[in-house]
Amino acid sequence: MIVDPELVERFRADLSALWPYTEGGPQKLGIALSGGGDSLALLLLAHAALPERVEAATVDHRLRRESAREAELAANYCSEIGVPHQTLQVEVAEGNLQDRARAARYEALGQWCVDRDLDGLSTAHQMDDQAETFLMRLNRGSGISGLASIRALGSLPNAPIRLVRPLLGWKRAELVDLVKSLGWSPVEDPSNENVDFDRVRMRQNLSRCDWLDVTAIGRSARYLAEADETLKWVVDREYIERVSFDGEEAIYQALRTGVRGTLVKGGVIRAIFRRFGLQIDQRVGAALVESLTRGIKTNIAGLQADVRDLEGERLWIFRRENPRRTG
Ligand SMILES: Nc1ncnc2c1ncn2[C@@H]1O[C@H](COP(=O)(O)OP(=O)(O)OP(=O)(O)O)[C@@H](O)[C@H]1O
């Protein structure tokens, strides 16, 4: 099975930008193989780029009757090219099925990487997935972090290895062409046609729309991922320089000027909540910045946020809400 050497070279460059797989001796890459066109292309490219150093796993969520058969097909393709393959059966908990299936999937894949002594895991998210995610989030009013969409680098919940997505610069059509040109037929997931899913509707709309440029949207998402990293760095610095603890109180010396606007101050406030073991989202963080800037004391999500002026300086004080009196 010969993959076009130019494509293999391009893949090698994309992968090595994310994962220095040649450093420190040979490293092994796990492939998350659903059996769809994207992940079969990933399997072929990775196998050609890193011969003998690739293994694949297919998660059988057991949510559809055909899933066992699909995993078997994926296993057959792997055995055709001599790549070790494992099917991982998972139990998907009740609740939001897609979220639960995703969580179970990444957990099973992480455990598999540990068991097989793999150094990295790759999924086959590509440029069209990226554009769909970006537009769905834009349509929901997401902030920088959400609009950064699918990250090229990630982590797994239960395994200390890198999660890489080297195909974000590749279009779905070119990946499917690659697979078909070698005589393989991707597994068709019927949920890809189910218009109850936002993503499916977005995909269909995008395919009918000739003025949206998927490559340009992918570029914007990359810039935003970088902006998000930079913002995290600024928030960390602001936290280190301006937040202190006195007994049960967190004290934030928030400057009166609006220079460090809601993004940074909101980020610092969210970090303070995390220190108390509590979580608030970006919108609540921004709302708190606004009320504290106006000097309004607020009780929210388990903390009491207050304003104190000390020697011409404005301090924002956070402490646990007093337990409510009963009786
Ligand atoms: N059943 C599966 N077994 C192994 N890998 C899978 C499976 N389903 C998805 N993947 C991996 O994840 C990639 C993205 O798949 P998909 O677009 O279906 O995921 P998603 O629902 O968007 O969730 P997420 O982006 O969080 O992974 C696939 O290309 C493949 O690499």
TrEMBL record:
Keywords: ATP-binding, Cytoplasm, Ligase, Nucleotide-binding, tRNA processing. One of its GO terms (biological process) is tRNA modification. Its main location: cytoplasm. It is an enzyme of class 6 (ligase). It comes from the Bacteria. GO terms for cellular component: cytoplasm. Pfam families: ATP_bind_3. ATP binds at residues 34-39. It is found in: Cytoplasm. SUPFAM superfamilies: Adenine nucleotide alpha hydrolases-like (SSF52402). Its EC number is 6.3.4.19. One of its GO terms (molecular function) is ATP binding. The keyword ATP-binding applies. InterPro entries: Rossmann-like_a/b/a_fold, TilS/TtcA_N, tRNA_Ile_lys_synt, tRNA_Ile_lys_synt_N. It catalyses: cytidine(34) in tRNA(Ile2) + L-lysine + ATP = lysidine(34) in tRNA(Ile2) + AMP + diphosphate + H(+). Residues 29-205 form the tRNA(Ile)-lysidine/2-thiocytidine synthase N-terminal domain. Ligates lysine onto the cytidine present at position 34 of the AUA codon-specific tRNA(Ile) that contains the anticodon CAU, in an ATP-dependent manner. Cytidine is converted to lysidine, thus changing the amino acid specificity of the tRNA from methionine to isoleucine. Belongs to the tRNA(Ile)-lysidine synthase family. The N-terminal region contains the highly conserved SGGXDS motif, predicted to be a P-loop motif involved in ATP binding. This is tRNA(Ile)-lysidine synthase. It comes from Qipengyuania vulgaris. The gene is tilS.
